[in-house]
Amino acid sequence: MKPAVQKVQAAISEHGLDRRVIELEVHARTSQQAAAALGVTVGQIVKSLVFTADGRPLLVAASGANRVDERRLGELAGGRIRRADPETVRQATGYAIGGVPPIGLASPLAVYVDRDLLGYELVYAAAGLPECVFPIAPAELVRATGGQVVDIKEAGSHSKGARP
To answer: Model pTM?
Structure first.
């Protein structure tokens, strides 16, 4: 197991979760690819997206079926929102884009959890590398991240992604 994945597995255990990292047969750089590899809906994939609010990094754990409403995020975070550049993502989380997990981050970040994820029994989040994910119940995700559950999807996003 590579160091990035070991770090995520350690964070899973530290949060008292009985979950294991799954290594996919393919690199899943998109929610659609991850959903297809797992045989689940796109909505069950957790996209860990890093933004900045007036320069402060924050993380949004969004359903793979949804686009984040950046204006709403700015209202919640109290600042002007920008997508974080790859270097900011790596510094704030300790991971490269495509493998950012919602837990085990390099620094504490404000976390916003997409309310639509709560509609599933189980969701899947990145585990340090594009080919690694871990299953987690939405309530466990909220508890482990200390995240705030919010309505964050852009109008026109679908709450239950289509099956792959």
So the answer is: 0.92
